[in-house]
Amino acid sequence: MKLELDHVVHFLNRHPIEAVNLLKNYGYHAVMGGRHENWGTHNSLFYNGLSYVEFLAIEDQHKANQTDNPLVQQLTKDIRNGEGVGQICLRTNNISVLKQTIRKRGFNTSEIFEGSRRREDGSVIRWKMLFILEKNFMPFPFFIEWEQTDEERLNELKKLRMITEDQENRSIKSVSYTVHNAEKAAKKWSKLFDVPIHNFSNSDEITAGIQIGGLEIVFVQPALKESSLYKVLQQRGERPFFVKFEPTLRKQGIELFGTRYQ
């Protein structure tokens, strides 16, 4: 099952243009993405290579409440606990085969969703999505297959000036989740993706991780209830809290609407 990180989804309780403006203040290029007309949401995008951060917000509350899209359903619930990254999406070039593979490994999936977004210039892009339907407090990643090839997408992003030359050569290296039990979380994801687990820990936290393509997923279990990470876990639940780029954005990191980026 060949997979790569496509994007991380950062839930916002404000207009996505605010993320564009804040990143601009730090010297980075982000753009408005557009509207998901059937789901009642809109977004802005921060591209680094073909991977990106999607800043997703509700535009039409009624439509968002009515949709059967699991990602939007999660957004409407999670945003009550605060802003921050809530999901990651992995890219595949054969979502139908992926669906069969996941089911053979003992996991329930949704049917394949058709997705589309109307850009600011009026053009429409399309894709397919697949979700895992397990009763798990920490949602498993979801999956995407784009209508265009990777090469076509990258060429179009350059043409539309949605990605700069500097950011084209940067990628997302790792995403860290805060969890109640790092070993248990890693075992579940290891089974899903059929990959080994690596463990390491220190006095403040217990950590386990897995590798999916070029992306490292790190599960961090706070060892002390007095730690700031434990407070994040109590507020937002088992969700991503840290995204690391290579090369790094800034050594000291950047705090963006409930998530730390480095």
From TrEMBL:
Pfam families: Glyoxalase_3. It comes from the Bacteria. InterPro entries: Glyas_Bleomycin-R_OHBP_Dase (IPR029068), Glyoxalase-like_dom (IPR025870). Residues 5-193 form the Glyoxalase-like domain. PANTHER family: BLL2707 PROTEIN, GLYOXALASE-LIKE DOMAIN-CONTAINING PROTEIN. This is Glyoxalase-like domain-containing protein. It comes from Bacillus methanolicus (strain MGA3 / ATCC 53907).
